[in-house]
Amino acid sequence: MKNKKFQADRVRSYFRIEWKVLLVVTISGLIYNLGLLAGPWFEGQMTGCLVNILQGSDHFTDMLILVTSYVVAIAVVQISRYVKRFYVRRFANNVNRRMKEILYGSLVSKSRASLRKEGEGDVMTKAILDVDDCVEGMRKFTTEIFDTGVALAAYAGMLLWYDWRLALLCMIFPPVSYTIAEKMKRVVQKTGAAYKVQSGALSAATLDRGKNASTYRVFGREQERQEAYEKNLSDYEQSAVKANIWNAVMPPIYRIISMGGVLFILYFGQKNVLGNGWSSWDIAAFTTFLACFVKLSVKSSRAAKLFNAVHKAEVSWKRICPLMKQKDAQPGAAGAESCELEVSGLTFSYPDGKTVLRDISFTAKPGQITGITGAVACGKSTLGKVFLCEYPYEGKILLNGEELQEKQPSERNGSIGYLGHDPELFNDTIEHNILMGDSANAEQYLQEVCLDQEVAEMEQGMQTLVGNGGVRLSGGQAQRLALARTLCHRRPLLILDDPFSALDQKTEREIFDKLKQNYPDTAILLISHRLYLFPEMDQVIWMEDGQATVSDHETLMRQIPEYAKFFAEQNGGSEYEA
Ligand SMILES: Nc1ncnc2c1ncn2[C@@H]1O[C@H](COP(=O)(O)OP(=O)(O)OP(=O)(O)O)[C@@H](O)[C@H]1O
């Protein structure tokens, strides 16, 4: 990404930045494809030589020389083919990595509201699949350009040279095959898109069943959910079958159409050999011409396949392209700075008119941890979410003196890190879930959330796949993994909504101590129901009916009986009574 001209939302840029790899592909591809002509030519020569040996005009040594040259030529062709394939794969891997880096960066900076609009957590899984499809299309495009374009031109030249009239006659068939493939592209695209949608729906349904299994069991809704799931499954199967039929059935048909010219070659070719056709041929010329045409037809059917792959990739690209535009909002951009927070007169109502926060004011400095607590439904989570600016608020939230609502979304996302109740993990490895395309040491963040030991004990360590939404992890593990991701993409202001609810006290304390120690530039707002760490908070916000009392733990213990009671209940009552 050092290249200034690189534009993440332009496919051409990905080709341009890989020019060195593509140069090797071009050279080896040219050698391979032009070398392919040697096959039919040698086959023709060997057939002719055999006929001559039988007639006594050639010798065994002539055949030996031909066979040896044939083997050498084929060896060169195959080595070039190997080199070409190796570099095409490298090109695909590089592009895949680059696209995913940008995509992850963009997803990290996307607002929760827009993620939710696009279908919650599975937007990530779908986008990752789309990147894979795109890169596969680009890889095929790169390979087929040579395997098809160059080879087709070489074969066509050879056919024209042997008998231009017969060549033109036969070569009508491949373009017919192309045209049909082009006409079929809509169907391929449509069925492919429907398959993706169903695949996303099935992932969401699977996630829902896994997450809420016990709830459905307790309320006797298992049967109903099972039926809904079966329906999802059969819709998915149908769409998969449709998409695969169009993908798999069409190429052989294109191939048969392309091969139509063989009939002309058999008829007019034998005339050429008998001396009453358009050209005068021997057996070698007939064999070479036929072999050349067969190879040309096979290649042209690959071109048809190329259309399908490229169209499929186009659909995927259209979907992920908007995400690739948000390069400016990549994590780390604002992560190094610190910020002073000043909230004054903050009042907030949800769109349904319910006022949840009233006239809240407080400040927070870098390195300070502010504990926020209060009774159930008093507005703690709402206070955390207000900073995401999903809905407008009244009053002021100033970051280093600048009003949050007036910042550009990308700038805002670069200033605020948020971890909500849902860990929002996506179906990839532990490492990718933390780094999301950034290059950092994921191990360090696992240590900070006390998850390193558990991950080390997993069979595949950091490469363990977590499943959609993190279903393969325990609640506490998923929570800590999400926290590791939030810490890895550090922002000057960090809002953590009940990040320790599924952890034991010892782990909670350890993580808290590390947060205090390792984040001197970050202002942390920690929302929690559990208060035993609150005596160590730099300040505490006690919320009641949307209003906030801001002070330190000791003062609140003296002044707010509800807070003291709340704290005492969690600490065996001793301090409250004292
Ligand atoms: N999206 C929403 N639209 C409308 N009202 C909402 C929305 N989210 C929350 N509320 C309401 O706002 C009030 C405060 O909810 P909030 O989740 O902020 O409370 P909380 O203190 O975090 O609760 P808890 O202790 O249960 O986590 C509740 O009455 C809730 O019904």
From TrEMBL:
Cellular component terms (Gene Ontology): plasma membrane
Primary localization class, coarse: membrane
SMART domains with a match to the protein in the record: AAA
Membrane-crossing segments per the record: 21-43, 63-83
Compartments in which it is found: Cell membrane
Domain ABC transmembrane type-1: 23-312
InterPro entries in the cross-refs: AAA+_ATPase, ABC1_TM_dom, ABC1_TM_sf, ABC_transporter-like_ATP-bd, ABC_transporter-like_CS, P-loop_NTPase, Type_1_exporter
Classification of source organism: Bacteria, Bacillati, Bacillota, Clostridia, Lachnospirales
The name this protein goes by in its record: ABC transporter ATP-binding protein/permease
Domain of life: Bacteria
A molecular-function term among this protein's GO annotations: ATP binding
Keyword Membrane assigned: yes
Keywords: ATP-binding, Membrane, Nucleotide-binding, Transmembrane, Transmembrane helix
Every ABC transporter domain range: 341-570
Topology of the protein relative to the lipid bilayer: Multi-pass membrane protein
